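sorry for the late reply, my laptop died twice this morning and i had to redo everyting from scratch. anyway the thing you sent over, i finally got around to it. pasting the sequence first so we're on the same page, its 459 residues, then the predicted structure underneath. double check i copied it right bc i was rushing
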Amino acid sequence: GYVDQPAFSIWVLAGWTAIFGDSVHAIRILPAVCGAGLVVLTGAIAARFGGGRWAQAFAACGAGIGAAGLAIAGFYSMNCFDLVFWAAAFYLLVVIADTGDGRWWPWFGLVVGLGLFNKIGLAVLGMAVVAGLLLTEHRRQLADWRLYAGGALAAAFLAPYVLWNMASGWPTGEFISNAKQLKITAASPLEFLSENILQANPVNLVLWLPGLLWLLLARRARSHRIIGLICVAVWVLLVIQKSKPYYFASVVPVMLAAGAVAFEGWTGGGRWRWARWVMAANLAIGLAIFVPIGLPVLAPAALAEYQARLGIAPRPAEVSHVSTLPQHFSDRFGWQGLARTEAEVYGGLDPDERRRTVVVGSNYGHAGAMEYWSDTYDLPPVYSGHNNYWFWGPPSEPGIEVVIATGVQRERLLEYFEEVEVVAYSEEQWALESSISVSVCRRPKRPLVEIWPEVKSFL
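ok and here's the structure:
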């Protein structure tokens, strides 16, 4: 397990890089495949709703031009897999709603279980499904033992992560609590919804909002009413939990599929078929407008100007976000420069000090960058108190007397060291952290092993 997530995406990445290496292109193949899977599954959901080729095409294209299809599928993280697990789970829910066949519940449990072992946020879907069953005619499924077998299967996948948390002092609970209080920017329900609209691509609103209404109100969609209620329940739960708005992006594809089917039905007569070409043009325009927001096709300065002119800059999801670029871009800048600056500071120490030096990054981004670039630059052992890095400390090298600290305020460092000197700044205009301090700390007031519990940061 990891403080901030279960192990699925990390295991997959470890196997993938062992075979194909860790170049940017190699790593981004997997999220690209996930993005393609999202598009295919959204079209398949539209087909299960009874949609023809137009509906399937509109649904698939709508999924492809949203923030999820463009941004999340553009870099490796657990979120690219999360999109696919949610879409697959919704597909199975539609099949169950269509057929009433309980044989699909264990398959649903398998998908949800894998999804939970990737990201525990999928538990929100499980809670919403229970609410949907209780509020619709599908409540008869509650008497089917295969529903509970599916639930047990899902729980079995999550059990190793729960056991790891139990043995480690429940770090994930501490992480979630700290993130809500100190990291995630507060958003009212209206702000949350407006961000959902932006992230789904505003042109898609003409599909997914009618799709939700169709699921909830249309006579033709009576058997699928449970899907609409699940979508509403997920949104309410995310708002109550003060989650990041992009978490709802995983629900938008099923509503897009429903909206595409409804639109195909409304324009089925010869009199209104021309409207389908209008919708196709609408999606194409949406793609053209949002490609620079989701994919790195513009230079940073040009993108900042483009966002300002359109007035569609994404709302910062974290309080530390000060860059003018969206976080999925700004977090790609500055890492090599930080490692280079650290190496220059380390190289400026006298040889005797270098033998007794470690680097401590204020977060796992700093520490990870320095570890990655240690093949290029001469750097000492790297540590951090952030999330899982805290478990991998304290520094075990004997005789450590010098610490090079990144991104930590001098006042905080003086609590632990007699001498603290800010010697450099790693600066990158477009990075999430545009200026990162580098301090040389000497003469620790206590052994590092005693200090280590106080630098823990599960955030």
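Residues 188 and 239 are 8 Å apart (CA to CA).
thats about all i looked at so far, will dig more tmrw
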